[in-house]
Design a protein that fits this description.
This protein is of the alpha/beta class. It is 34% helix and 24% strand. It contains five helices and eight strands, in the order βαββαβαβββαβα. The strands form two sheets. It has a six-stranded parallel sheet with strand order 3-2-1-4-5-8. It has a two-stranded antiparallel sheet with strand order 6-7. Helix 1 links the parallel strand 1 and strand 2. The longest helix has 21 residues. The relative contact order is 0.21.
Length: 181
């Protein structure tokens, strides 16, 4: 594949602001780093791809009005895809777009760190794409496992970096990802 790069912004949508788990303090740091990544990609001529998660009902349905760029983020994507599953490469047309545009490297960012961002990263790697995973430009929320143990945002992000690093992606800061673009 070619060395052309695209920035993938996964599920940075208002649907998440409707959940009780939304924490403006954590979200603020994410939004700042996500915006820096978007702005840096734009400055370098890197195409920006917006992925929006869509479900038939609820806050992720088109009818809800929440399937739009999350408040606090300025995003004018080159292309937008709606996804029905965790991977942005399933049922969206993204893979065809990447191939048509000779993209060989993607930068993954967005919401949720350990779910759609991680799944998209693994899938892209398995398809042969080089992937930079920008953890600081991802957002997640505390989670409780089936035994009642709470995993913090920092623990979830550390675990995601652990399982992706040098297996599925290069873990990169905003600046490192943009430098390689």
């Amino acid at each position: 594949m070619s060395a052309a790069t695209a920035l993938i912004v996964v599920d940075a949508q208002d649907s998440f602001r409707q959940r009780a788990s939304w924490d403006p303090a954590i979200a603020g740091a994410y939004l700042e780093r996500q915006q820096a990544l978007i702005d840096g990609a734009r400055a370098k001529g890197v195409p920006v791809v917006q992925i929006l998660h869509v479900e038939a009902e609820g806050i992720f349905s088109l009818a809800s009005g929440h399937v739009r760029t999350v408040e606090g983020l300025s995003l004018a994507p080159d292309v937008t895809f709606h996804k029905p599953s965790h991977s942005a490469l399933v049922g969206t047309g993204l893979l065809v777009w990447l191939i048509q545009n000779r993209i060989g490297r993607i930068i993954v960012s967005g919401i949720r760190t350990e779910q759609c961002c991680e799944t998209t990263t693994r899938h892209a790697s398995d398809l042969g794409f080089a992937v930079d995973y920008v953890t600081e430009a991802t957002l997640t929320f505390d989670m409780t496992d089936r035994h009642g143990r709470v995993f913090t945002v920092d623990e979830i992000k550390a675990r995601t970096e652990l399982v992706l690093h040098e297996r599925f992606a290069r873990i990169a800061t905003v600046e490192e990802a943009l430098e390689a673009a």
